[in-house]
Amino acid sequence: MKELTSKLLGLPPLHSANGQDVDNLIIYVHWLMLALFVGWIVYFLYAVNRFRRSRNPKADYVGVKSHASTYLELGIVVAEAVLLIFIAVPLWARAVEKFPAAKDSTVIQVVAQQYAWNARYAGLDGEFGRQDMKLVRLDDVFGVDPSDPNGKDDIQVLNEIHIPVGKPVIIYVSSKDVIHSLKIIAMRVCQDAIPGLRIPCWFVPTQVGRYQINCAQLCGPLHANMTGGFLVVDSKEDYENWLKSKTGAKTSFE
Fold first, then answer.
1. Which of 51, 87, 123, 210 is most deeply packed, by most CB within 10 A?
2. What per-residue confidence (pLDDT) applies to 252?
């Protein structure tokens, strides 16, 4: 039933293991919207017939005495409360409670800026080099300390983020300039990128492929150019080969 509803709603393909809850919430909300739409159309037709001029030649200044409309409004409030309390809040709680351990995940730092996506990996040693905001410059938006040996094999890439399939991915999202929003539709991920904050989000990719990264916040006159980023889900072998090929290389937006 859910698959049929997803097709009817035109939802994009889902390629993350933890994204089904997001689709479920979207489906339930649309069922409520459909019920409200049909209900209001029926009420509108009833009102047009019940209160037409031929049936009410003289105005009635007392108005409706029934409490039916009040009960309907309360019913809508209850339905929305059920969606919020029993679906939306548990969805968020599960995402927080099941947050994967960094040692079992691919950990990436992402810094958005007008109008590109910078990504940083820990390299083959699995250790990020030290960072300092005072070291941030045009060619290093992460402010990496060049004297830290742990950062020698760190990787910085622009607009193309590679991850292995089937393994949890933790992305720490931030921004260099204005508020952006990292949105990967196929993974059902959408997280605001806010200057001065590093906010984590996570997902588990289930299918190899290349997926567009969108910015879900209006971030300036060239906001549309933020669609130039891509998430590439590789096989484990392809990802390891890519990681080795990039170790020590740094590419950033100027």
1. 123
2. 45
